[in-house]
C-alpha cells in the first residue's frame, strides 16, 4: 500500500484494497448494503470486531441508513451531494464523524476502533466514532497504598485517565495534546500541562523528544520513559511514574508535564528530582508536622538502605577498632563459628533477600506475601542455627530491607539497591575507604544527572536553594507557607497562594 494511496470512487475497488491490507485478519468485519428507493446505491462499513460498540453501529448508523437514507432518489445529483450530506449531517446520530481521503487514514481509523463508512461514487470515507472495547473499571491503585486520599487509580484506557485529571483541574488552560508514537503500535500518548504555568522551553523540549522517536511499538510507559530520558544508563529514574491521578494533578499544578500512555495505568511526570522521589501524595493529606517527620525518616532510611551492609563489612573485616569494646567483643563471639568472611556472609544474605523479594513480586496475592515473610523467617533462623551467618548480619539485612520499603518510589529504591551492592564490593576491597569512595561516586553521579535539563539534586545543588523550595523537600511546611511553586520547573506563574 502506497503512502498516498487515495480512496477510489468505486466501492468495490476500495473494499478490495482493504481486504488485501487485512489479508488473513478474521476479526475484520465487512458489511455491504444498499440504500435508495430501488436500492441502487451501495454502501459498506468496515470495523474490527471487539474494538467497537456494536450497539452504536446498529442503532445509530445502520438503522438510520437502512430506514431513512433508502428513501432518497438515486439520481446523480443526489448521489453526489444530497446522499452524503444526509448521511453525515442529518441521518447518522453518532456524536463524531470525520472524513478520510486516503486508504492509510481509513486503515488507521479502523485499527483504533472506529468504523469506516464507504459510499459508492464518493472519494471520501466517513469515519464514525464507535470505540467501545472492553475495559477495566476504576479501582484503587495497587502499587501505591492509600491511607488518606482519593482511592481512584488510572486504568489502561487513555481517555478514562485524562478524564480523571480533568475532574481535578477544571481549568480550560489545562491542555491535553495527543501524539501518536510507534510505527506499528500507533500508541496514543497524551501530553498534559497548564498553559499559563508550564515553562515553554521545557514543553518544547518534551515535544521535540517525542517527535524524534522512531520505534516499532510503545507497549508500556516504561518504554517511552527510556527512549526520552536524559541518561538511560543510570540506575536512577529521571521521571516519576504513578497510578494516582491526584499525584499527577498536583504535579501539573506545579508547572510539570504529565505523559499518559494508552494501554498502561502508569503516568509519567517530568521533570523529576531527588526531592520529588522522596515525597508522597499523602504528605499533603496529613498534618504537616507528621509529614515532616515521615520525610526525615525516609531520608535516614535511604542512607541505611545504601550504607548498612557496606558499613557492616568494613567495620567487621577491616576496622573493628572503631566499634565500642563491648560491641566488638560481642560481634567477635557471634562470629566464632561462622566459616565465611563477612563479605561472603553479607552477599549471601542480601542475595537471599533479593530472591525472596522477586519471588513475592512474581507470585501475586496472599501467597506472595506469605513466601516473603515465612521464607525470610525460616531461612534467617535456619542460617543462624546452622552457623552460616551471625545474628547481627540477619539484623543488618532485615533493617536494610525494611528501610528500602519506606521509600515512596519503587524505581528510585531499586536504584539505591544497585548502589548498595556496589558499595558492598568497594567495602570488601578497601574497608571504610571503599564506603567513602562509593558515597563519592554515587554523589558525583547524582550531581551530574539531570531530568530534561533540570539538575536531579535540586534544590540541594543550588537551584531553588534559598527561594522557599526547601520548605517542601526534607520537611513539609504548612500549606499556607507554600506560596510559590517549585523553582526547578521554572513556572511562568510562580505564585499559587494569593
Features:
498 residues; alpha+beta; 5-stranded antiparallel sheet
Proportion of beta-strand residues: 5-15%
- Write down the secondary-structure element order: HEEHHEHEEHEEHHEHEEHHHHHHHHEE
Give Rg in angstroms.
30 Å
* Helical proportion, percent range: 40-55%
What this model shows, in words?
The protein is of the alpha+beta class and 498 residues long. It starts with 10 loop residues before the first helix and ends in a 43-residue tail after the last strand. It has 16 helices and twelve strands. The chain has helices at residues 11-21, 54-67, 76-91, 103-111, 158-168, 200-211, 221-228, 245-253, 274-277, 288-317, 325-334, 342-362, 366-385, 391-405, 410-430, 432-448; strands at 28-35, 41-48, 97-100, 115-119, 125-128, 174-181, 187-194, 240-242, 257-261, 267-270, 450-451, 454-455. The strands form three sheets. A five-stranded antiparallel sheet has the order 1-2-4-5-3, with helices on both faces. Strands 6-7-9-10-8 form a five-stranded antiparallel sheet, sandwiched between helices. The protein has a two-stranded antiparallel sheet with strand order 11-12. Mean pLDDT is 84; it is low at 76-80. β6 and β7 (187-194) form a beta hairpin. It is 46% helix and 12% strand.
